[in-house]
Amino acid sequence: MGDEIFTLDFASEGTLVGQLARNIRRAIAVGGLKPGQVLPSIVKMAELCKTSVRIPREAVKLLEDEGLLKGRPRSGIIVIGKRRFVWRGSVLFVDYGQQPHYYRGVLYKTIAIELAKKGWRVDYANVVHGKTGKADLTQLKMALRGSYRFVFGDYLEDDVLLEIRRAGVPYFITTGHVAGRYDDAAGVFVVSESEAYNALAASCSAQGVRRVLRVALDSAAQVFEIPFHEHGIETEKILIRPDQTVDRFLHSAAETSRKLRERLSDASKPKPDLVYFADDSLTIAGLWVIHDAGLRVPDDVKVVTLSNRGNRPVYRCELTCIEHDIAAYGLRIVREMLAFLAGRRERKMLVGNAELVSGETF
Are 77 and 108 in contact (CB under 8 A)? Predict the structure, then answer.
């Protein structure tokens, strides 16, 4: 047993207890101390460390709590070995597609890290769309044969929900529209832009914006339109429908370019005062079209985009955004999950509200 284990730096900013515990922990990790080996007595360790007995006593207690040492009557302090970590249980995340997805990546990573800190293992089941556009549920069906405490997914589609319900596993979901579809869910987190839309509509009214064009991936525009109509502002939409059988982002960008170019070149329709891109994947392609049409931002047309904090589209000036703080949402969701795992069965619905963040394009 090397004396370096008990050699402490009294000039160090760290505590002596922490130093000694770290030395013993490192010696176990590299094999300098082996399972079954007996450490010197507390009194002997104090002599070797040139400290009071309090220092080795507290260090040993710390390492006993970690499962690395065990004090036994008449046997002394025994090295147990490297701590064997045992997961408390497993949860299953359902992911869609094979392409990188910033929003879902940050959300899942945040939740998975926090669950792991509390001893919960996270597995993934990937649902992909084949050439026909139909979801391939093979991996999900196989995963659901395992023993999971719950399933979590972002905007779970009906065919995925059907498989989860058949398996009888509780599920958590994030969604943008509840409408009674998830009454059997263990937890629902609603991602909402309604408050930000209210703020944007009021700001448009104050700045004399009379016509707003919404470029979106979904047709559920009512929550967007209502506050603008209340302020007497006209709205119209361009709906982009991604082709699931090809690269979603490239197809969406191409469709945005084509449809927005057709709209801006239509002399029979008035020019919009503001263009709102309801997904940041549409923004860059749309901005190119606006510039190609000879329109200046924000002098001729104002621009607002829906974005995720940390991944705002890069433009020559700061974009005005309706922004989601995904990491903050993840922390709120995981608190609800841990409460469920601890035994609480009261179903709760949480809401994550996007925020209108000022920039130079509006």
Answer: no
Structure tokens belonging to residue 117: 């800190």
CA 83 to chain CA centroid, Å, is: 30
d(CA 356, CA 199) in angstroms, rounded, equals 7
- The pTM of this model reads 0.73
Cβ(145)–Cβ(169) under 8 Å? no
Residue whose tokens read 């989601």: 324
Instruction: Using alpha carbons, list the distances in angstroms from residue 138 to 108, 152, 294.
Output: 21, 17, 50
Each residue's pLDDT tens digit in the chain (362 positions)? 567 899 998 887 678 998 999 899 888 888 888 888 999 999 999 999 999 999 999 999 989 888 889 887 777 899 987 655 668 889 999 987 666 678 889 999 999 999 998 889 999 998 887 666 677 888 899 999 888 999 999 988 888 999 999 999 999 999 887 666 788 899 999 999 999 999 999 999 999 999 999 999 876 667 899 999 999 999 999 999 877 666 677 888 899 999 999 999 999 999 999 999 998 889 999 999 999 999 999 999 999 999 999 998 889 999 999 999 999 999 999 999 999 998 887 777 899 999 999 999 99
Cα-based distances in Å from 90 to 67, 134, 208: 23, 28, 54
Question: Residue with structure tokens 């963040």?
Answer: 357
Strand partners, 93: 124, 152
> Do the bridges between strand 355-357 and strand 348-353 make them parallel or antiparallel, or are there none, so unpaired?
unpaired
The single residue listed with the structure tokens 């200046």 is: 296
- Sequence-ordered alpha helix ranges (H) in 211-325: 222-230, 248-264, 283-292
Inter-residue long-range contacts of 7-15, CB under 8 Å, 24+ positions, other chains counted:
7/49, 8/49, 8/50, 8/51, 8/55
